[in-house]
Amino acid sequence: MELDELDRLAATAFDGYLVRKDLAQRFKGQYPVPTYVGEFLLGRYCASTDEEEIAEGLEVVERQMRERTVRPGEEELFKSRAREHGSIKLIDLVTARLDTATDSYLATLPSLRLNDVRIDPEMVASNERMLTGGFYAEIQLEYDAAIAQEKAGRPFGVTSLRPIQLSKRGVLDDLARGREYFTTYEWKQFLLRSVGFEPSRLSTRAQDILLMRMVPFVERNYNMVELGPRGTGKSHLFQQVSPYSHLISGGKATVARMFVNNSTGQRGLVCQYDVVCFDEVSGISFDQKDGVNIMKGYMESGEFSRGRESIRASGSIVMVGNFEVDVEHQQRIGHLLGPMPPEMRNDTAFMDRLHAYLPGWDVPKLEASLFTDHFGLVSDFLSEVWSQLRGDNRLTAIQGRVNYGGALSGRDTTAVNRTVNGLLKLLYPNRDQFISEEDLEWTVRLAMECRRRVKEQQKRIGSAEFRNTHFSYQMGNDGIEAFVVTPELQSENSIGSDPLPPGQVWAISPGGPDEYAGLYRIDVNEGPGSGVKIINVPVPGPFRESIKYGEQNLFTRSRELVGDRDPRQHEFIVQLRAFDTAKSGAHLGLPALLAFCSALLGKSLKGGLIGVGGLNLGGGLDPVYNAVGVAELAVEKGATTLLIPISARRQLNELSDEMATKISILFYADAREALFKALGD
């Protein structure tokens, strides 16, 4: 492998904390331990970019993995070695339980199939996680022949134990210092390499989703769901990368194990781990009927009760699962949370507690080429800094720099803020580093999309309180309001109910003797300069005429249309997009004028609106001779509002009842009224 620019940058910034990620993959499947266990040892012996040092360290790691991990069928061999030598060292998952018959703790070592191993109470007290899900550790296991002779004797005992996780202080400062060497783009690439992926082989969309998977590790009490096809690595991060996360396979859990054991007071997984992930979400179930309700309460407040005592915890809840069908089909037959268990599937109160819904269908199926062979941060260092970042907050640094639209409820705002906070902590581990406008907008758009996806499912279930899903934001007090859509609901070529960006308008040309009516979109960008430039090649003659009429009406009536903005001080770049067989762009003067005004004002027109109408140089409106056909085409294209000249009113009395219930019709008598109604305010 040849070092690339990112490798050299990482070697400068994080000397001693790097590991070549393909080395960790070498052990995957070869030894019965998660990836981070191998990386822990690689980080100890191979944290270098020098090939000779890596080769020497690799020999040590290979030997330790070979001698200390127990493969199936080798259990008796390791027990025999312990008897012959008095003790052995091994790497295993260690859990413990209290044996009330002997008032002592007993450890379980699954790879040796031992469940009655002696362990010191102080060792258990200082590592409480072994009482819940357990953790991987380097263990010194002794065999006492004298105890073996006793009746019901327990000859095996743990004499020393070292959890496989970093315990060094000041790692967050090291990460913050190293981050300064990278641009944001390079840092995102490096984070993805650090969890084993090669970003150059992933789309930008897939990279964003993989970065979103990291948010629960750095944000307390974060609730996330990801559904998608099989084989996309949804549980990879939560099982292989960090010892601070716990994967519940099959989704089955007990209230005592998850939250608190009422009889002993022992705290559960959400108290012991940073992230608890339910694999195969369709199988989530608890041993008690109120288990889901306890989890709902915890997801809302971060608290649960044990008798009269209220217990706080900070563990994030992640649920991952598979779609049996494609997304479009799932939306036709129900909603995108359909694979959830029955108790949660149609519960809008449960959905409201989800901060983000990740589109797992946008991540490719994992294959060897997607894994990196370059350098990344060693997993125990990465998981340790993520754990320490949970106590940080970046929202104070962005106060006043972004404003959310009116469609966001209190819970929506909380959810978006949680996601933004998590993403900013990933990108800016140094709390004093200035957050760029571009990065802030990226986090806001991603956070809003993932929260809106939750809201859209609530809307599909039929709850009126969730009907307004037009999420928007404004950068600063003078920024333009931008709307955020979920890609699976709206393609670029469909109208939908969301407002287009300023300067864009949907339009229908009524057609003429030689052309049917057709759908168009006019896109106008304004900037410093003067004049109008149409970038279509060649420019259809009728459309050129429509633009000329729209431009002249804008110049002559600018005061009443756009106030004190002078259109002559702006250059307009215009593009026409046709979506039907009609291509001429005839009789689009009024929609063109709306696009000019929208671009100048920096305001979006109403979502779902289609404009119809031709203009002449004096500001008069051309009659629409086939208004019923135009209205039917608007319904067919998914519009919710039709803006049409008042002269078409009588014709539209002939519109069928079925069509009339599917679209709102706004009439206008002149260009100013049309603009007023199109803006909706």
Beta-sheet strand percentage?
15-25%
Sum up the overall morphology in one term.
Answer: elongated
Return the structural class: alpha/beta
Provide the helix percentage. 25-40%
Number of strands: 26
Biggest pleated-sheet summary: 7 strands, mixed
Q: Order of strands side by side in the largest beta sheet?
A: 22-23-21-20-24-25-26
Task: Note the topology.
Elements: H1 5-13, E1 18-20, H2 21-27, H3 35-45, H4 51-68, H5 75-85, E2 87-99, E3 104-109, E4 114-119, H6 121-125, E5 135-143, H7 145-149, E6 156-163, H8 171-179, H9 184-194, H10 204-212, H11 215-218, E7 223-228, H12 236-241, E8 245-248, E9 252-253, H13 255-258, H14 269-272, E10 275-278, E11 285-286, H15 291-301, E12 303-306, E13 309-312, E14 316-322, H16 327-333, H17 342-345, H18 348-351, E15 356-359, E16 375-377, H19 379-389, E17 402-404, H20 410-427, H21 437-461, E18 472-475, E19 482-483, E20 504-509, E21 518-528, E22 531-534, H22 541-556, H23 558-562, E23 570-578, H24 589-601, E24 609-611, H25 627-636, E25 641-645, H26 657-660, E26 664-668, H27 671-679
Parallel strand pairs: 4-6, 7-14, 7-15, 8-10, 9-11, 10-14, 20-24, 22-23, 24-25, 25-26
Antiparallel strand pairs: 1-16, 2-3, 2-5, 3-4, 5-6, 12-13, 17-18, 18-19, 20-21, 21-23
Helix pairs in contact: 2-3, 3-4, 20-21, 22-24, 24-27
